[in-house]
């Protein structure tokens, strides 16, 4: 069966197609709320050329931010827009993935983890530059960009 | 104001087989009346971070029968909390919550149904269609001493699949099991089914 392989980190028990279907169900509603069309948080330069070794650190940081900041603060909108089902599918599957990621902490991995951290800080920095609600809406709407990037590691 | 005068549904439980999950409960009996029920669920994320948020079930908000197919609601391999309440006109019962959260990795996986046929000298198998979550591992061999077992992964079920071109006079056997990627589990193998090919068996 297929699994996520973020470098040394393996994640089974998540069906990527279920995540895509959940996002497609809410995509129009969510992205219609994003009025700041000139800005992209998950920019190309952040996501391109992520090495296998870096990928576990990077996805761990991203999913942690999505679960602890974006999903946690977006749920009122999810109720309002009646997209709780999709919201729940994505949140719970992201939680499964995160719970199975074990980024290595050895010293020799420091430079790799630092690269991943810099990428994440670029994303977080762009998020913080926007108005809070606009940033939440944009980040939630950019989950297709995130899923597309994750798909490369689904084998 | 619809105060909770109806008794809450009791004996909630989930029966799950081959990734089909059904929540059942004891019906609330009111003579000559139809009682309706509403089902709601919470994934682990909601129960940890937003425990006040409950999501109406896809098919059972409301429903008349004392059961609910929650398969489409369970979309992650995490514990799900489930609750049910009864409604009769303006009367509403309290919520009854499933005692132990349900996780789809506890589903019962049965050996798959299969049809093994011959199409001339071709060994063909048709497996039970169990839905997109299922892959099938098919083992087949020629019945003779020291026979080598071949394995093929088949997906999806429900479509005839060519396994092997058989030798005249030989007997071939097949068995299969399922694999569910979302929970990383296999079923047991089915009973082996064998077919014999007409004609003289070729000298080895």
TrEMBL record, chain A:
It is found in: Secreted. Immune regulatory cytokine. The gene is IL24. GO terms for cellular component: extracellular space. Transmembrane segments: none annotated. This is Interleukin family protein. It comes from Catagonus wagneri (Chacoan peccary). Gene3D superfamilies: 1.20.1250.10. GO terms for molecular function: cytokine activity. It comes from the Eukaryota.
């Amino acid at each position: 069966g297929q699994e996520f392989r973020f470098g040394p980190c393996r994640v089974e028990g998540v069906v990527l197609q279920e995540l895509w279907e959940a996002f497609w169900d809410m995509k129009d509603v969510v992205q219609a709320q994003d009025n700041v069309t000139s800005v992209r948080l998950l920019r190309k330069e952040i996501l391109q050329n992520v090495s296998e070794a870096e990928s576990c650190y990077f996805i761990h940081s991203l999913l942690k931010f999505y679960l602890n900041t974006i999903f946690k603060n977006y749920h009122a909108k999810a109720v309002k827009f009646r997209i709780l089902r999709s919201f729940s599918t994505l949140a719970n599957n992201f939680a499964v993935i995160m719970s199975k990621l074990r980024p290595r902490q050895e010293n020799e991995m420091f430079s790799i983890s630092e690269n991943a951290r810099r990428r994440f800080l670029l994303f977080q920095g762009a998020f913080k530059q926007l108005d809070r609600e606009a940033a939440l809406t944009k980040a939630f709407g950019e989950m297709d960009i995130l899923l597309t990037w994750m798909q490369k590691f689904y084998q | 104001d619809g105060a909770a005068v109806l008794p809450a549904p009791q004996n909630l439980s989930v029966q799950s087989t081959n990734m089909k999950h059904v929540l059942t409960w004891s019906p609330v009996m009111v003579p000559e009346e139809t009682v309706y029920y509403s089902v709601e669920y919470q994934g682990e994320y909601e129960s940890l971070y937003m425990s006040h948020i409950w999501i109406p079930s896809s098919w059972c908000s409301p429903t008349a029968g004392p059961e609910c197919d929650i398969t489409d609601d369970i979309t992650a391999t995490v514990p799900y909390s489930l609750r049910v309440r009864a409604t009769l006109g303006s009367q509403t019962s309290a919520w009854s919550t499933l005692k132990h959260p349900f996780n789809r990795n506890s589903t019962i996986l049965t050996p798959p149904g299969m049809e093994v046929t011959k199409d001339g000298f071709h060994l063909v198998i048709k497996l039970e269609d169990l839905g997109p979550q299922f892959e099938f591992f098919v083992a087949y061999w020629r019945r003779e001493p020291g026979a080598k077992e071949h394995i093929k992964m088949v997906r999806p079920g429900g479509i005839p699949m060519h396994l092997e071109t058989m030798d005249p006079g030989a007997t071939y056997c097949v068995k299969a099991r399922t694999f569910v990627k979302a929970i990383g589990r296999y079923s047991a193998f089915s009973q082996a089914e064998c077919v014999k090919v007409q004609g003289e068996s070729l000298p080895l």
